[in-house]
Amino acid sequence: MAAVLETSILPGDPDLKNIAQKVYNDQRITDEEALLLFEKGSLGFVGSLANFVREKLHGDITYFNRNFHIEPTNACIYTCNFCSYSRLYAHRDEAWELGLEQMMDIVKKYDGEPVTEVHIVGGVHPKMNLEFFAELLRKIKAHRPDLHIKGFTAVELDYMFRKAKKTAEEGLFYLKEAGLESLPGGGAEIFAEDIRKQICPDKVDSDGWLHIHGTAHRLGMHTNATMLYGHIESFADRVDHMRRLRELQDQTKGFNTFIPLKFRNKDNDMSHVPESTLVEDMRLYAIARIYMDNFPHLKAYWPMLGRQNAQMSLSFGVNDLDGTIDDTTKIYSMAGAEEQTPSMSTQDLVVLIKQARRQPVERGTLYNVIKDYGAEELV
Ligand code: V47
Ligand code: SF4
């Protein structure tokens, strides 16, 4: 390890130097050290540490998958201030609400296509209940048993379960029997209660979100975790959020991927809050990779970050770029993301990853390797 230390750019600050030594020696950093990285760590410094961790875990491998989204509705009973998506009250005329057959038509559009995952996520509609979604899951599985169903944020699940008077365990068991295989990471936002109260006061609270994910893990399901950053939260709030996730992961080992989500400020009630800079985005990815030592994967969600910034994140700890998506999600385009029609072909993703001198690997939802594109010529 001495050789690594000698060749790396170590800062003069003894506390930062100590953190570098811990990372190179495979030791966990503390909350205070993570905070110090946010306060004092230059992009080059945190980036090189994160890259060390990333390459130790995955070498150059960069995963992507072939997926599509179903968004059952953009109507939502909640009033998250950062949301540009929900259309229940303010813009009823722009609201949509899909029936079972319309959603099955979306699934059938992919018949014969080599997609491996459907990601179901949407607003919380008072009329779409547990039984309705269980029926959707059964229909998808009957039509295409090989498709992995990743569906419903803890926010959607919390509402469905409470309405059906079921515990998280009962509700998840029921949906699992119907075909649900894993949970996406949405709805976590920021756990710090004082900030959560200001940006999303009325949906599931932090303990409720963590309880649903912990319960899913105990039932043998894998899940992801997100953090909405770059709005009114402090560095300490980010560390607090990641600490709660790291602690749950120590107990359950059920999280696959951590996905930081950059706050976008178009057309929502927080449009006055400026968006974070690219340097701040990359520093966040890097510090997350260093601190979240028990999360196997760190994902940059390219429709939100933009494809060039997502490409750059591959040098700051990120080893997963989510999926081809195929223009089936509206959440980010409505919030002002660069990607107004988010769609990338497999070839686009392979080239993007190769240009960053990484090794593209198509994966299934649970990171089973489907195809390694490493040996193919760059075009
Ligand atoms: O929870 C809403 C976010 C999330 C804005 O698990 C916003 O693989 C930024 O969680 N600016 C839903 N973000 C999407 C999500 C997700 C996406 C891709 C993959 C996975 C996965 C999960 O979208 C919400 C919220 O945090 N969001 N509005 C906004 N203005
Ligand atoms: Fe509803 Fe999700 Fe938007 Fe909040 S972020 S208002 S829960 S759709």
TrEMBL record:
CDD domains, per the entry: Radical_SAM
GO molecular function: 4 iron, 4 sulfur cluster binding; 7,8-didemethyl-8-hydroxy-5-deazariboflavin synthase activity; aminodeoxyfutalosine synthase activity; iron ion binding
Organism: Niabella drilacis (strain DSM 25811 / CCM 8410 / CCUG 62505 / LMG 26954 / E90)
EC class (word): transferase
Pfam families: CofH_C, Radical_SAM
Family statement: Belongs to the radical SAM superfamily. MqnE family.
Residues that hold S-adenosyl-L-methionine according to the record: F82, E189
Matches recorded under InterPro entries: Aldolase_TIM (IPR013785), CofH/MnqC-like_C (IPR045567), Elp3/MiaA/NifB-like_rSAM (IPR006638), F420 (IPR034405), FO_synthase_su2 (IPR020050), MqnE (IPR022432), rSAM (IPR007197), rSAM_sf (IPR058240)
Cofactor(s), names only, from the UniProt record: [4Fe-4S] cluster
Example of a GO biological process term: menaquinone biosynthetic process
Domain of life: Bacteria
Catalytic activities: 3-[(1-carboxyvinyl)-oxy]benzoate + S-adenosyl-L-methionine + H2O = 6-amino-6-deoxyfutalosine + hydrogencarbonate + L-methionine + H(+)
Protein name (Swiss-Prot/TrEMBL): Aminodeoxyfutalosine synthase
UniProt-listed Enzyme Commission number(s): 2.5.1.120
Pathway given in the UniProt record: Quinol/quinone metabolism; menaquinone biosynthesis
Domain Radical SAM core per the UniProt entry, residue ranges: 62-296
UniProt xrefs under PANTHER family: AMINODEOXYFUTALOSINE SYNTHASE, FO SYNTHASE (COFH)
Cofactor note: Binds 1 [4Fe-4S] cluster. The cluster is coordinated with 3 cysteines and an exchangeable S-adenosyl-L-methionine.
Job description of the protein: Radical SAM enzyme that catalyzes the addition of the adenosyl radical to the double bond of 3-[(1-carboxyvinyl)oxy]benzoate, leading to aminodeoxyfutalosine (AFL), a key intermediate in the formation of menaquinone (MK, vitamin K2) from chorismate.
Key words of the record: 4Fe-4S, Iron, Iron-sulfur, Menaquinone biosynthesis, Metal-binding, S-adenosyl-L-methionine, Transferase
Keyword Iron-sulfur annotated: yes
